[in-house]
Amino acid sequence: xxxxxxxxxxxxxxxxxxxxxxxxxxxxxxxxxxxxxxxxxxxxxxxxxxxxxxxxxxxxxxxxxxxxxxxxxxxxxxxxxxxxxxxxxxxxxxxxxxxxxxxxxxxxxxxxx
Length: 113
Description:
Elements: H1 2-27, H2 29-48, H3 53-70, H4 76-94, H5 102-109
Helix pairs in contact: 1-2, 1-4, 2-3, 3-4, 4-5
């Protein structure tokens, strides 16, 4: 059960990264390039989460925020950026550990896990 909980956050973050990729393919231009790069950085952050938590965190922020900031006037993309940071933070925070991270314990006490 603990493995499913850990991978749940990884899966949600991966789906948000795929949405970034879809937005990038549909929009085009500078916004599209930023969205595609964001998707790549989010995926890279998920891949590095078990090796280097600080590097994965930086990549997650660099991948999620620029599209949300660039399209601040929209409703969907800033919310996606916040969700990517929250879900990605939980995915990175749980890393390869079962339930020992501070972020995972915080989420569990708040009833989100």
